[in-house]
Design brief:
metal ion binding, 3-stranded antiparallel beta sheet, HAD_sf, alpha+beta, hydrolase, about 20% strand, 5'-nucleotidase activity, 10 helices
Amino acid sequence: MAGCGVRSRVLWRFVGGISKFNEIISYHGRSCLHTKIIKSIEELEHLYDERKRFIHESASHALVDEQAIFANNELGMRHIDVYGFDYDYTLASYTDAMHFLIYDLAVKELINTYGYPQGIEDDMKYDPDFAIRGLHFDTCNGLLLKVDAYHNIMLGSVYRGLQPVPNEEVFRIYEGTHLAITKINPSNFVNGSRRTMHHMIDLFSYPEMVLLSNVIEFFQHNEIPYDPEYLFRDCQQAVQNVHRSGKLYQTVTNDIDTYLKRSPLLGELLQSLASSGKMLFLITNSGFEFV
């Protein structure tokens, strides 16, 4: 972080119930290494919170322009002659009501097309605060979980339905916290492997993740047996049908102010590019009439 005199890098691994904790602290160019054996998750979480407070108290945070655009490399925009835009969540910014709508339509699709119980619609409502973008769904075990960039399961993020799964059960199911890359991206490896971890990365995935969790919660509570993989496929297909059927687009078109945020600077941006002789194009999988 720019402007910080103190930096900390924490390296740890969990093996056989014992975590080896290595911390490298850099203070104004000087570094020192601390090593400590952690014997419990609680102790590790306490140490993590302690170091987090240390960094926040030591760092001088520079003010950041929230409207600025940051790039990893220098880019001379004057040399760019053609600009392409996606539609959903780029030119079109949706309100939170869109996720409620997708969820409600997908629930009806599950009930009317796939024969799921009516009680799901009656008892299980959309919770916008339940899930975050980028979670994985495990179709073997029916779990929603967060996996970091190194394929480590983030403890405390694993849910079966709406219920958190204890860390001990996570260790037992996955034999630790690290996932083999073949479970996440089997296409790069031996033939016959199949993906069991599905990354819910799209912004439209919010209602799908809540739908999966609510259906599992309903089945668990009512002691209804289910196959996680078939359930995932049904929920995924139900959400896709909401888009393909035109029901979603028709509802949004009939009530634009409820589902679309107005971007006052968008027209100015596009007009500025066009008046500067730039070529513009739109690419989207949304229907022509909707756009």
